[in-house]
């Protein structure tokens, strides 16, 4: 049986006046675990978190995140640090990262094998984007950075890994939770087409 340990770090419950974030990390004996986050996660939190995990050579295997209010999120990620030679979870604390600037890391070469983009009625109107490609540490960070370049931001996401392939799904909104326009969709499509080699 695999042993696990878990430490919860609750702050204030998530409500309209909350400035708190709750997080919990449950680790197994195999350098893998589950990271859960909820609460007042500011815009850009996903990029900061994925950058921080990449810096520690921690891979995100699967996960979900959904925005349930103006700044209120619930997220859970299966993470794996076995590719690093040191203890990737030593003194692990995501809060300084989530509240500060994103760590600068070298972006990996994103290799997309397939993608799909379509309009969605979810979240009051969004762009549904499905991306698959060769998994690597920093894959999610690279995708999120690309979205932000086009002023598109996930309001819900589902990520998974099968073998060496990453399969990620996003529902994207514009600045201020606006509904993305046709030009936004076209620009994203052209970028993904280029990354997938479909020229």
Q: What does this molecule look like?
A:
With 199 residues, the chain is an alpha+beta fold. It has 2 domains: 1-105, Alpha-Beta Plaits (2-Layer Sandwich), CATH 3.30.70; 107-199, Alpha-Beta Plaits (2-Layer Sandwich). It is 21% helix and 39% strand. The chain has a 9-stranded antiparallel β-sheet with strand order 1-2-3-5-4-8-9-7-6, with helices on one face. Strand 2 and strand 3 form a beta hairpin. Helix 1 packs antiparallel against helix 3 (139-149). The protein is globular, with a radius of gyration of 17 Å.
Q: Looking at CATH, which topology of the largest domain would you report?
A: Alpha-Beta Plaits
The structural domain count equals 2
Level-2 CATH architecture of the largest domain: 2-Layer Sandwich
The N- to C-terminal Cα distance equals 50 Å
Strand content: 35-45%
Physical arrangement of strands within the biggest beta sheet? 1-2-3-5-4-8-9-7-6
Give the ordered list of helices and strands.
EEEHEEHEEHEEH
Q: What's the number of extended β-strand segments?
A: 9
Rounded mean pLDDT is 85
Bulk shape: globular
What is the top-level CATH class of the largest domain? Alpha Beta
Largest beta-sheet details: 9 strands, antiparallel
Helix percentage range = 10-25%
Label the structural class.
alpha+beta
- So how many helices? 4
The low-confidence runs, each spanning 5 or more residues with pLDDT under 50, are 1-19
- Cα-atom Rg, whole angstroms? 17 Å
């Amino acid at each position: 049986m695999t042993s696990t340990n878990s430490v919860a770090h609750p702050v204030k419950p998530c409500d309209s006046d909350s400035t708190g974030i709750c997080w919990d990390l449950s680790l197994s004996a195999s350098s893998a675990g589950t990271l859960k986050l909820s609460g007042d996660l500011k815009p850009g939190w996903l990029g900061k978190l994925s950058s921080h995990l990449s810096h520690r050579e921690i891979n995100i295997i699967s996960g979900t995140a959904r925005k349930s209010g103006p700044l209120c999120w619930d997220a859970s990620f299966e993470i794996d640090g076995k590719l690093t030679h040191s203890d990737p979870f030593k003194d692990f604390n995501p809060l300084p990262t989530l509240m500060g600037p994103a760590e600068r890391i070298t972006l990996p070469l994103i290799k997309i094998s397939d993608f799909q983009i379509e309009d969605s009625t979810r979240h009051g109107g969004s762009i549904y984007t499905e991306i698959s490609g060769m998994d690597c540490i920093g894959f999610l960070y690279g995708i999120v950075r690309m979205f932000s370049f086009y002023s598109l931001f996930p309001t819900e996401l589902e990520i998974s890994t099968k073998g060496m392939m990453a399969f990620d799904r996003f529902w994207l909104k514009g600045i201020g939770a606006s509904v993305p326009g046709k030009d936004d969709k076209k620009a994203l499509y052209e970028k993904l087409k280029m990354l997938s080699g479909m020229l």
